[in-house]
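sorry for the late reply, my laptop died twice this morning and i had to redo everyting from scratch. anyway the thing you sent over, i finally got around to it. pasting the sequence first so we're on the same page, its 180 residues, then the predicted structure underneath. double check i copied it right bc i was rushing
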Amino acid sequence: TGNLTIESGASLVANSSPDCNRDGVGDGQCHPGGNISIIANNINVTGTILAVSDGMTGLNNNRGWIGNGGVINISSNILYAFNAIDASSDPSMPGSSSVITGGNGGTIIINSTTVQILGIVNARGSNSRTNGCGTGTPPTSGGRGSGGFINITSTNITITGTLNASRSLKLLKFTELIYL
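ok and here's the structure:
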């Protein structure tokens, strides 16, 4: 029950493998983000904590499901989050005209007496087809990933940053994941 500091430029990462090519033709479910549990007296995050699903790298014919976001569970006396805590389903995955179904956002649970969030806390769903969804069922039609879950339990909380557990937007193209 000591202290944990994740400094600027550093990351605590449990991202999934980007290889979704399970059967040689690229049809398949990409791996979900990993699980991170942190128990410490004081936690200071000026770097990043990531449990993100890495997208569709390795697909031969661009068909399949992007993995869901991971799970981040933080228990502490004091949590200061100045940069990013992210359990999204590949937020940097660009939309595609191919047949891709977006993954759901992950789960972030924070249980701390004092919480100060000045950065970004994300549990977003990932993108899907840029040209809309077809008439079939996933993975033949593409579909947006649903938003995840963010639960913060605290007796003293200040949020001047961003909490985002939104469903992805169809036709939206993320070309770069940007942190403060």
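The mean pLDDT is 75.
thats about all i looked at so far, will dig more tmrw
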